[in-house]
Amino acid sequence: MMPARLVEVLEVLVALGFIGAGLGCGGAPGAQTPAQSASGAGTIAPDFTASDIDGKTFRLSDHLGKSVVLLDFWSTFCEPCKAEFPHLRALYDDDKSKGLLIVGVAMDGPETIADVHAFVKRFELDFPVVTDDDSRIASLYDPKKSMPLSVLIARNGHIVVVREGYNPGEEKLVAADVAKELAAPETPAPSP
């Protein structure tokens, strides 16, 4: 039998979402279970414009029709996000010449947004990273604001797969989804 105080602490951690079935950060309690989701699959990816970490403008619609896009929502304080980065870097290195564009969406708020640039350098992220400190982009794709969250978008602008959370080994599933989409015949992107 556990001491009453330990039980209380565990109950608080569970309620706050620090202990869950899978590895994920943020979102609503119960949203941490990594999963492939049909949520949004088949719909047109909402367009957005944001600033990258160097202050340049990034517009999603500029890349549709040309690239398969993998949006990766993360933050500097999310441990599963950090564990996923080496796999995303490798995937990008392997497939960018085939038409893959990975876009990191940093969901850090006002308290930690200043850490994003140094974080990107430390983790050697060489794909574009945009900031979403007001959660405007996240609200388009994941109102629960779960992280990590990956959204695979076909060249034609349709959402193919949404994956929530990260557990070791899931990078193989993401890579298989990307490979399948890169091999798919090209269809026209929607008009802006």
How many separate structural domains? 1
Radius of gyration: 17 Å
Mean pLDDT: 81
How much helix is in the residues?
A: 25-40%
List the secondary-structure elements in sequence, H or E: HEEEEEHEHEHEEEH
Percent of residues in β-strands: 15-25%
Helix-and-strand structural type: alpha+beta
How far apart lie the N and C ends? 61 Å
**What is the CATH class?**
Alpha Beta
The strand count comes to 10
The number of helical elements comes to 5
CATH topology name, in short, is Glutaredoxin
| Form type | globular
Polypeptide structure, described:
Helices cover 30% and strands 21% of the residues. With 192 residues, the protein is of the alpha+beta class. It has one domain: Glutaredoxin (3-Layer(aba) Sandwich). The chain has a six-stranded mixed sheet with strand order 2-10-9-5-6-7. A two-stranded antiparallel ribbon has the order 1-8. Strand 9 (149-153) and strand 10 form a beta hairpin. The radius of gyration is 17 Å and the shape is globular. It starts with a helix and ends in a 9-residue tail after the last helix.
